[in-house]
Amino acid sequence: MARFTDKVVIITGAASGLGLESAVRIASEGADLVLVDLKEDALEAAKALVLGTAPEAKILTVAADVSDESQVQK
């Protein structure tokens, strides 16, 4: 299934749990991703996991606290 082809999806809390599971699923359906989480090292591990299942995905990781407006603006 490729319902997210040519789409970019932003996923917060992407380094673990439901965020990571969502990233894997959505990338497998053709999306490029922006993965956002507090922990930069965990984001890199999440990126590697997603690319292991969807190697064609383009992925940008952003270490940020989305509850802090100044970090979101950056």
TrEMBL record:
Pfam family, one: adh_short
InterPro entries xrefs: NAD(P)-bd_dom_sf, SDR_fam
Name of the protein: SDR family NAD(P)-dependent oxidoreductase
Organism: Kocuria gwangalliensis
Species lineage: Bacteria, Bacillati, Actinomycetota, Actinomycetes, Micrococcales
